[in-house]
Amino acid sequence: MRGGLQTLCLAALAACIAAAAEPVYDLLLRGGHVIDPKNNISAPMDVAIAGGKIARVAAGIPPAMARRVADVSGLYVVPGLIDMHVHVYAGTGVKGVIAGDQSVYPDGFSFRSGITTMVDAGSAGWRNFADFRQRVIERARTRVLAFLNIAAGGMGPEGEDDPKLLDAEAAARVAREHRDLIVGIKTAHYKGPGWISVERAIEAGKLAGIPVMVDFGYLDDVRNLATLLTEKLRPGDIYTHPYSGHREELLPEGRLNPAMHAGRRRGILFDLGHGAGSFFWYVAVPAFREKFYPDVISTDLHTGSMNAGMKDLTNVMSKVLNLGVPLEEVIRMTTVNPARAIRRPELGRLETGAEADVTVLRLDRGNFGFVDAAGARMHGSQLLVAEMTIRAGRVEWDLNGRAAQDWTTFPYKKGTWRR
Question: What is the CATH number of domain 81-349+372-377?
Fold first, then answer.
C-alpha cells in the first residue's frame, strides 16, 4: 500500500514538473525597450502574449515559458499604433471622391505601418454607414472605428455643402445604432455660409454623447478660427489640420494665431491630419517653436496622400520627432492620446489582460529627408520604421522575420502554410 502511494505521489510530482515546463505564453517579445505612456513605462522589459491578450510585461521573462520567442533587442515595443484620421471607405466603385476610389482598404496599409487601429474620419455619412460597415469594417483584420459625417452621403458625390443633407437627429440615431464602431461626428469641407455644418455636427454630438471632429473648410466674414475654437467647439472636440495654414492658423508676422492657444486652454484637441494638403513646414516649424504640439499624430490617409509627402504614420511620427518632440511623447500621441480622444480607454496600452495589440519600432539614425504636403523637403536625423505589428496576439507584419523560424529547421509540410 505504501509503495503504491509513493508511486502515485512520484507520478503526480512528475506531472507537476512537466506542466511547469510546458510553455505558458504563445509569444515572447524579448529584450526590447517598452514605452507605454498610459502606464508611465519607458524601460527595458519583455512582453509576453497568450490567448490574444497581454499576459505579462516584466524584465527577464524566461524564454522557455514561450512557444515562440522574438528577439527585439535594440528596438522599441509600444502599444499598437492608432491612426485617428484615415479614409478607408473603399470598394464603392465611385470615382473621384473619398467614399470611393480615393479610399484605401485598411489591411493593405495598416499593419506594415505599425497600425492596429484605424479611425475613418467621415468618409461615410448617416445614410451609407451601414454599407461602409459591411463592405469594409466587418471584413478587415485591422480594428476600424469611425467618425460619422454629418452629411448624409459622407464624402461622396453629393458633397458636404447642402444644408438639407446635414441632419443632426439622423446622424445621432445612426451613431447610437452603431455605437460599437462610431466614436464621433465629423464635419468637413463646408463652403456654404454661416455655421450650419459645425452647429449641426455639435448638435448630433450632444445627442449621441460623442465628440466632434472639424475640418473647418473655408473662412468668410462670419466663419473664423477664433469663434470656432473659443465659442463653438466643446472641450474634447477635435480640430484637425492645425498645421495647414488654410484657416489663418499662422499669422502673417509668422507667429501662431492666439486662437490656437485659447482653444487648447479650453480643452480643444488638435489632430495633425497630414493629408495631401494639410501639413506644411512653414506653419509647423514656427508652431513647434512655440511648443504648440499636436495632441494626436495622424495621417489623413487616402490615395492622394500616401504616395506624396505623407507616406505613412511612421513617417509622420518621424517628422514630429525631428521637430524636437521626445520619442516618448511621439508614442503618446499615437497610442493613449487618440484612445482617450475617441473615448476607448481599453486601447493604447500594454497591460495584463488587454488585447495584445503591439507595435515594434526601430529608430534609425542617419541623413533622411522628409517632405511636406507642398513637396518641400526638410532634413532629419531620425527615422522610425515598423519592424513588427501584432493584432490581437497574431503577428500581422514582421519586416525581418523576428518571430519566424529559420528555414533550415522549419517543418515544411505542403499545404500547411498561409498563401
Answer: 3.20.20.140
